[in-house]
Amino acid sequence: MNTFNYIRSPTDVHEVDGPPNDCVSTVRFSPSGCPYLLLGAASWDKTCRVWQVIHQPNGMNIRSQPMTFAVSDAPILDMSFSADGRVFWGGCSKTATMWNLTTNQKIIVGSHDLPVSCIAHVSSNTGTEILVTGSWDGRLRFWDLRQPMPIKEEILGEPVFGLDAQRSFPMAACVTGRKVHIFNLQTMMKTNELKPPPLLKFNLRCVACSPQKDGVVVGSSEGRLSFIPLQAEVGCTFKAHVLVEDNVLYMHQTNFCVISPRVPHMISGGGDGRIGCWDYKKR
Hints:
By secondary structure, this protein is mostly beta strands. The chain has strands at 3-6, 24-29, 38-43, 47-54, 63-71, 76-81, 87-91, 95-99, 106-111, 116-123, 129-135, 139-143, 152-155, 160-164, 171-176, 179-184, 189-194, 204-209, 215-220, 225-229, 236-238, 242-245, 248-251, 254-259, 265-270, 275-279.
C-alpha cells in the first residue's frame, strides 16, 4: 500500500466559522496569482461562501475569517476562482454566474439545458479568459465572457461529473460515465479519450490533470483512485476509500482528487470521511 498519510488527528484540522447549512458540493482555493489566499465552498443550501485564509509559510498556525457569501436560487454544484478574486459558480439553476467580490455584482455568463455540474475559469498565457462549463445535459461549453453565446460546444453524450482545467493550461480533462475526455484549451479541441483501467468497475466521479501533463488521476464511485498515463507507461490503481470492517467490504465514493504541483502525490477525499495521499510513481 502506498498511502503515506491519512488525516486522523483533530490537531491537523482547521474548521472555518460560518460553514454551509447543507451538504458541501465543492471546496476551492484561489489560484496562486490572487492577492489573497481565499477558500470557497459551494453548497446544496444554495450558497457560495468565501473565507480569507492566513497561515505561515510552513503551513502552520492556519487561521481563517468569513469574508462574504452569496445566495443562488438553486443548489450550487461547483465553483471556481479567477486570479483577480472573482468567483464563478454553476448549479441546479442551469446557469453559470460571475460574482465580483469587490462590488458584490452577480452576472449570469452562461447556461445549459440541465444543471451545471462543473465550472472552471482559465486564463491563458496571453491573458485571454475562458470559462469552461460542464453539465448533466452531456455538453461541455467554452465561454468568452464578453459574448452571450458559447464560442465552442462539445457534445459528449453523457452527464459531465468532473472537470479540471485551471491548473494545467493548456491541458484540460473531464469525466463522463466511464470515459475521460482530454482537451487542448488553446484550440478548444478534444485531443484524446481514455478509458479507466479494468480495476475500476463503476462510474468516474472526479478527475485531475497532472501538472507535468503526462496523465490524469480519476476517482470512482467504488472508492478507487487511478493514475492513467498519456504515454506508454504503466498506471496504478489504489483502494483509496475501500474499507473492510468485521469482514464486510465498504466502498465509499471518491469525492475529489488533486495532484500536487511539486511532487508525484495524489490527494483524494471520500465518503468515508478520510483524506488520503498517494505516491503514484512508486505504485
